[in-house]
Task: structure prediction
Amino acid sequence: MTHWHNDDPLDASHDTLVIDPVKMNIVNRIAEGSAVDGDLRFDGGLLLQGTLRGMGEITGRLVIWHTGQLQGRFKVLGDLYVLGHLGGVADDIDRDTLIECQGTAYVASTGVSTGTLLAARLRMYDGAVLQGPFKTLRPEQSVPVLQAARNS
Amino acid sequence: MDSNPYASDPSDDEAVPDDLSADAPEVMMGQSMPEPHQLPTLQPAMQAMPVAVPEGPIRHSTLADGLSFSGTAAIAGSITVAGEVQGDLRVSEAVDGHVTVTETGTVVGDITARNISVLGQTVGLLDAGGGRVSLHSTASVSGRIRYTHLQVNGADLNAQLERVRTDGDQRH
Result:
């Protein structure tokens, strides 16, 4: 990937993510202080700096910023970067939050996830918090997260 | 990325709004984890070489590739598992022990230790409450994980995760 900066694999330094909205095709943004609730579909990537609740689909990358919070049932077709909160802010497991990520889920050292996370690949950094179930998605299986959510 | 329809063209006056093009922040993700094939390891010939041993006993056990073990093992020190274990591995909490399951290693059972590194397969509980769990990209882990520090680098993971707070933490 072009937006990662760490050339020396044995260098125990930090991985840095360059959030370039153009390269990452992040065309949607929920700014800090904003709260969006409902059944939503984002065409392209989303930079989440505020709060997003409900259900829906992000057809691109999702970056949950340090100030961002996502709750509910969402399907992310691209990679997921968790720098903020996925699920409730409390320590308890958030059983109402279920995220299906068809790419790689990156949980940074500042990231906290208390919901259920399904992802094709997980990369989790020291200091990150994952409470609750995690499942690696196999290529052949696609979990009907949204259908289950809509039928319930 | 060249074919990206959103890519900016310098000759295009209305290429990208300012708040998109000027704002490309770099964020720290955390300490990086090396890929398994790039981990520094000692060749067998090197392992047999005498080394200066620091004060106090150093105990390291190895369950070699091809060895299959059933039962419960209580370990003082550290252990490397390259074979198959059916049962529990327990490293005393008083020891800063390390359990390493190599790429050829399989453990079906619970592992309790301060530090756990997995490059192979485990089924069961990985209990490193107060300690560290590292899952490398070749690992396949299912069951439960109790940890205070957890690093995952693309492992195949199907687990219930539980973070254990240490005494130093403010909130419990």
In short: Chain B is about 5% helix and 45% strand. Residues 63 and 81 of chain B are 5 Å apart (CA to CA). Residues 1-18 of chain B have pLDDT under 50 and may be disordered.
